[in-house]
Task: structure prediction
Amino acid sequence: MDIVQTFYDNLATQYDKLFSDWEAATKEQALVLEKLFKANGYGKCHKVLDCACGIGTQAIGLAAIGYSVTASDISEEELKEARKRADKNNVEISFKKADFRILEKTFSQSFDIVIAMDNALPHMLTKSDMEMAVKSIANMVAKGGMFVASIRDYDALLMDKPTYSPPYIHKTQKGQRVAFQTWDWKEESYKLTQYIIEDEETLITSKFECEYRALKREELTTLLTLNGFSSVAWKFPEETGFYQPIVIAKK
Result:
């Protein structure tokens, strides 16, 4: 996981630049998640663990609308940024550094809802690491609880193995910001290079590298079922309004 930690440590202070409006995104995504929670019988009385919280995009949004949220991440720099943003948004969140392959080393209690959004699971580059992560996450979900995660649509992407993602172009007060990724594939894994180009008073280009393994829905569904979830369902962007497919697994 060293490459993952390095990627997010370096990206931490610039992660919000991947959004046209990060603050608005926290609110929008919280409402998407709340709708999914309510549709499955959960609400603000249920405790949430965001086990891949990053700079707090989902955790802060959920806390702002009244959820009790605990958040963890493997990147200390992202956790520092998340704590600052939680303070700025006047929300109370317990932040912990934790590897979601071994959550039991950090948390002794279980949670009603565990989430891992924004394509976090595919950072597991081997099947054994993925099995370890799903088992660890499943152990954090209380009986009768739910796990919610989003991943890229790798079932579709593996058909063509695109070499880049379309750029995001955001207008700023002093010019524009362009963010895009290149993908260098090797079988079912790929090296991702994230570029952020700020074309304002001066031109600034930033570059960050990481790796992913394309996780297909059938593999994740099987792992969730083997680790104690009695139902697993997939929801797609046209239904949820979220930009990636979402899996909902219930105990």
Summary: The longest strand covers residues 175-186. The mean pLDDT is 97. Helices lie at 2-11, 22-39, 57-64, 76-88, 127-140, 154-160, 217-226, 237-240. The CA atoms of residues 28 and 141 lie 25 Å apart.
